[in-house]
Amino acid sequence: xxxxxxxxxxxxxxxxxxxxxxxxxxxxxxxxxxxxxxxxxxxxxxxxxxxxxxxxxxxxxxxxxxxxxxxxxxxxxxxxxxxxxxxxxxxxxxxxxxxxxxxxxxxxxxxxxxxxxxxxxxxxxxxxxxxxxxxxxxxxxxxxxxxxxxxxxxxxxxxxxxxxxxxxxxxxxxxxxxxxxxxxxxxxxxxxxxxxxxxxxxxxxxxxxxxxxxxxxxxxxxxxxxxxxxxxxxxxxxxxxxxxxxxxxxxxxxxxxxxxxxxxxxxxxxxxxxxxxxxxxxxxxxxxxxxxxxxxxxxxxxxxxxxxxxxxxxxxxxxxxxxxxxxxxxxxxxxxxxxxxxxxxxxxxxxxxxxxxxx
Length: 359
What we know:
With 359 residues, the protein is an alpha/beta fold.
């Protein structure tokens, strides 16, 4: 195999065209004779870049005008703490809907800052999936309701939005942001580490409704205070300028490719191809119910740890990288984010078939 395909769950692959443009501009950005990494974030060229990135992201994701976009640091883990510090109000409580490792980790962090109730969404049994997403009867007892629509480790995705009535809905979309169309107005806040579908690690995007800004608890550090960050255009300190620049290139690239509709169609096609192969296979197994199979992270195994390890080693030697499953779950995991071409999925299936026949 001459072509290498990177199935990493994150940091994940970026569109090659974006990397090529960044490479061509690395030493001379906008004719300045300097890299974008070497210019002031407060200078006119970078301020214009940031403003254009905001406009392009809004256009790409259809973000309403009454939402602020913040480009922050600290990853999604930082937001696990920032969210309760900014959103907990008079009710003093939050509801966390857990469906896997990351939503449970978010709930654990939030307990350091407020009282939370936790509801496990997962069904019991051989196959894992989600049963109920209607919390309209209890949601308004809380300052916000938090969930993670895509769990990267287990490959579980929630395609329906939880019904929380008039309560504030918060979503950790680190691993499925920009992967399919959503109605932003259903959410009070969306946050995502960039390193899967948006850009490199080191930058985190927060989309927050304006009426939720300005209510942070008094002891909230300024770096986590949404009001401070919004008033400073996400630049109260030196931001990760190169990561921001790469995100801006990704937004332009996907707008030119046809936007979210095109992205979603490609993602559905890739996922269907791989899941159809798994469903007809007697050698590999996926344990997620069909209605909750992730478009982004496809988990599978042979049922034998030694055979799984052999699979990963031989796949890597063939140019199919980062297929080892997370240590929490084991097995294999193919992360097929936006930048993964369908040819990568086809190459993976061809290898899987050959490997199975040789055992």
